[in-house]
Specification:
169 residues, alpha+beta, Phosphorylase Kinase, domain 1, five-stranded antiparallel beta sheet, two-stranded antiparallel ribbon, 9 strands, 34% helix, globular
């Protein structure tokens, strides 16, 4: 059972120790958790909330079941292991271009956002992605229609493109 009194650092340390792995660096943190790199080139994400952990784990498990390694040329991390007591998810690391971070995704049904919220979200994402926004929209539609994964945490840090494809117009 998850023990909320343990810090994220303590939980990831316990996971690494239990799985005989060495943490090499922190790759960053966000609203849902912190990601660490291991010496054996996997990424470990330690979550702040049980529901977010479960959502992301369930998405990665589905992608593993369907043998999804890339979507439209974007590399997708592969599920390696998880620990629901520590709220830790281990996955392969990927190089750009990639698609990652499913903590805010909805599985099997789209979020029920009001039309004005969706319109404002689309406008913001169009500005963030520039000329890549139509490609992102196709990717999002494909993920929803093919895998039942509705992504909402969409930004250039989670969906990257080839280096030559980053310019905004």
């Amino acid at each position: 059972m998850f023990n909320p009194s343990l810090s994220a650092e303590e939980r990831v340390r316990r996971y690494a120790l239990a799985n005989s792995m060495q943490l090499t660096q922190s790759l960053g943190f966000g609203k849902d958790g912190t990601v660490y790199m291991t010496a054996n080139a996997t990424a470990i994400k330690v979550f702040t909330h049980e529901a977010v952990f479960a959502r992301e784990r369930n998405c990665y498990e589905r992608l593993k079941e369907l043998n999804v390694h890339e979507v439209f040329g974007h590399n997708v991390p592969q599920f390696v292991n998880s620990d629901e007591n520590l709220l830790v998810l281990e996955m392969t690391s990927v190089q750009p271009p990639f698609l990652l971070d499913f903590g805010s995704a909805y599985l099997d049904w789209p979020p029920d956002f009001p039309p004005e919220v969706l319109e404002e979200w689309n406008q913001r994402k169009s500005e963030e992605f520039g000329r890549n926004w139509p490609k992102v929209q196709l990717l999002l539609e494909f993920m929803a229609d093919t895998y039942g994964i509705y992504l909402t945490d969409v930004h250039p840090g989670n969906i990257t493109f080839e280096e030559s494809d980053h310019t905004r117009e």
